[in-house]
């Protein structure tokens, strides 16, 4: 159920875009209470979730290739490739332009699925808040893996729970062939009820992703790949405040945790938050 801080439990969504309405209705039907400080904060999350889905679809059509960290590549006009295979933004370019180049000049890029997730999230934030605010908030972009990103204040919940369009999920391949370690798992963006985008695999359902991963198991293995009980998403409250030009961002937004975190172990590492049962 969705509840606004003042106790409001219903919102007029008649003028919203269909994807936003669909996510709203899914969350509102769930027995978990999702509380928001304002209708504006709720709408921001739904817009950003919708933009994440669109950014994933845009990446699918960008012509950017899949590659391991060792073989990654980028457009040197915007990015400096690091020894670890990540991309550090050049200081003489604008963050918004650097992100957009990946989608408009995809053939110049190759990266791993974890890097793809970070790129998708930044593209979605960019399209949600616009160039000016994006350039103000993200002045030193580093694209590597969502596990090391701090700018988006990512929250990971390691537990089985409802997931929604725009969430980041992970399919694990526990018996991967050591010769194909880049296929030890697949980071994906949830696009719909059984539709996912995974860089290097494309847009398909859960069975399609599992089938692809299973082709890269040890010879004779019978242990299948599977979707783990974990979900990752940006700190929507922090991004909403940051994009609203509230400087500094309130401590409430920086420390915000979803209702699912109550009674669980919370670990903060830099700008990331991990929540365990």
List the helices and strands and how they pair.
Layout: E1 2-4, H1 18-29, E2 34-36, H2 39-60, E3 65-66, E4 79-81, E5 87-89, H3 95-104, E6 110-111, H4 113-129, H5 131-137, E7 142-143, E8 155-158, E9 168-172, E10 185-192, E11 195-198, E12 202-204, H6 206-214, E13 226-227, E14 231-233, H7 236-243, H8 251-254, E15 265-269, E16 272-276
Parallel strand pairs: 1-2, 3-6, 8-16
Antiparallel strand pairs: 4-5, 5-7, 8-14, 9-10, 9-13, 10-11, 11-12, 15-16
Biggest sheet strand line-up:
12-11-10-9-13
SSE pattern, N- to C-terminal: EHEHEEEHEHHEEEEEEHEEHHEE
Indicate the percent of residues in helices.
25-40%
Q: Compute the gyration radius: what is it?
A: 19 Å
Shape: globular
Question: Average pLDDT, to the nearest integer?
Answer: 92
- Total domain modules: 1
How does the helix and strand content classify structurally? alpha+beta
Individual helix count: 8
Major sheet description = 5 strands, antiparallel
Q: End-to-end distance, in Å? A: 22 Å
Low-confidence stretches: none
- Strand residue content: 15-25%
Question: Could you tell me the number of beta strands?
Answer: 16
